[in-house]
Amino acid sequence: MTDLIKQAAADLVKSKYAIALTGAGISTESGIPDFRGPSGIWTKDPEAEKRAYRVYAQFQKDPKRYWIDRLTMPSLLGNLDRYAPNPGHIALAELEKMGILKWVITQNIDGLHQKAGSSKVLDYHGNAFKLRCLACGSRFESGTFDLKKIMEEDRLPPLCSGCRGVLKSDVVHFHEPIPFDVAEQSLEEASRCDVALICGTSAVVYPFARLPQVAKQRPRGSESVIIEVNAEPTPLTERGISDYLLKGKTGETLPKIVDEVKRLMDTKK
Questions:
Q1: Cβ-based neighbours of 213, under 8 Å, separated by 6 or more
Q2: Architecture of the structural domain at 39-76+129-170
Q3: Distance (Å, rounded) from C-alpha 160 to C-alpha 137?
Q4: For tag attachment on the chain, is the N or C end more exposed, with fewer CB atoms within 10 Å?
Q5: What is the C-alpha end-to-end distance of the chain, expressed in Å?
Q6: Domain 1-32+85-127+178-269, second-level architecture
Q7: Which of 66-80, 101-115, 222-236 ranks highest by mean pLDDT?
Q8: Positive or negative, the Cα torsion across 117, 123, 126, 131?
Q9: How far apart are CA 188 and CA 182, in angstroms?
Q10: How far, CA to CA in Å, does 148 sit from each of 50, 67, 108, 120, 172?
Q11: CA distance 21 to 24
Q12: In angstroms, rounded to a whole number, what is the distance separating the alpha carbons of residues 204 and 186?
């Protein structure tokens, strides 16, 4: 493992455009429950998963009912405000500050990368703390609107302050397309990178799962180096998409990589 940490650090230091792709594995280390793991929310409650598959259709049919349900029913993940970034999130933020990591593209909706200090984050599946206009694509912090008051005054659904289009949670529901701006930029970053850190995801949920493959192919030049940081081997490991696997928790492995990156950069001075 020590040799692979040194290799990962060396690849990052040599990189001209590194990105990170992150999934549920980095968030579960902060205590956020996953959905499909052995103790996952949907594993324990299959009916909740069935309901989740119907949410977007409900929004399309009756946006007011969608918002009433959101504002009166408990969230499956509880209060996301109470969770804090772990050392894995902080390590990725450090790599950005050092000028190495250009973007984090995450499947997670919890905003923990931003809390950790990462400023260049693409929330591939949306952000639980934002609202999005389906007409013009504008996003707003949830606190911009007093949603409870809007409900009490029977003015649901909330409307975009710009175009007056209907707002929904920024979270991407099942059967909902990935917002065009995020999908387009994510593909652009994946095709541009020369190193990709795959952290806490097996990348089997599409279309996100295309991104490691796009990075590997790198249409603009030679193949990128794909570094996988996961607790167990994944389909990316088995199919040879990742060049090597650092097996372990992201919160333990990524800080070690950052320490080695700092050592290498110090020796260059």
A1: 241
A2: 2-Layer Sandwich (3.30)
A3: 9
A4: C
A5: 27
A6: 3-Layer(aba) Sandwich (3.40)
A7: 101-115
A8: positive
A9: 10
A10: 27, 10, 26, 31, 22
A11: 11
A12: 16
Query: Tens digit of pLDDT for each residue in 74-111?
Result: 887 778 999 999 999 999 999 999 999 999 999 999 99
Longest Cα pair distance anywhere in the chain, in angstroms? Answer: 64
Domains 1-32+85-127+178-269 and 39-76+129-170 share a fold: no
Q: Give the residue carrying structure tokens 């923990």.
A: 112
In order of 46, 82, 202, the CA distances from 191 in angstroms are: 37, 35, 19
Look up residue 14 and give its two tokens: 């040599």
Residue count of the chain, please give it: 269
Instruction: Note if the pTM is more than 0.90.
Output: yes
Catalytic site positions: 125
- Convert the pLDDT of each residue in 6-27 to its tens digit: 999 999 999 999 999 999 999 9
